Amino acid sequence: MNAESPDTQLIALIDRVAQADESALRELYELTSSKLYGVAVRVVSNRNWAEDVLQEAFLNIWRIAGDYKATLSPPMAWMCLIVRSRGLDFLRRRTSERADAALELDDVLSDTLEGDSANPMDTALAGEQAWALHQCLSQLDNKQREVVSLAYMRDLSHNELAEQLKLPLGTVKTWIRRGLEQLRGCMARFA
To answer: CA separation (Å) from 49 to 39, 79, 134, 141, 184?
Structure first.
């Protein structure tokens, strides 16, 4: 198994998880949990909350592994996105729970009736935009996609990216600039 690239190994594990293979989920967890925990900590800024987020993320991975498409995104980027989404959902729930505890029932009802929540059209539009972004990201070179994804998902500076990827700073800046230009052009076609 040493001849396999890390992505190939993770893709194979995700495929096995999609077939409800619990041992594959355990192995996937062992291989990725430390990195994904770091993403969770960055999103929620609390180690205890990050543990809850990570658990929710792996439950989500278990449920949606069959939807993963290796052609759309590398496995770690896909899992990081799931962790980030679970983290943001966790923060929204916490904010909501605190707000609900402070409001009277009449206030909650009036807020609901005013329709502060996203309407179905907004939700559909967001889904279409996410699909378009996946399509456009898949058109980038692998290295370019990795640099752009890391810059925005992990909120890393150019210097941090160059250091982490062991690349010259100028190369990282060029890849990000060119990648964003390509993404803008591609996304404009979907607008």
So the answer is: 12, 18, 28, 35, 35
- List pLDDT tens digits, range 105-134: 555 555 555 555 555 555 566 667 777 777
The count of residues in the chain is: 191
Model pLDDT, residue 17: 96
Burial class of residue 179 (count of CB atoms within 10 Å of its CB; 0-12, 13-18, 19+)? buried
Helix residue ranges, H only, the chain: 6-18, 22-44, 47-64, 75-102, 105-114, 120-138, 142-153, 158-165, 169-190
pLDDT at 8: 93
Rounded Cα distance, 158 and 170, in Å: 9
**Amino acid type, 82:** I
- CA 147 to CA 131: how far, in whole Å? 20
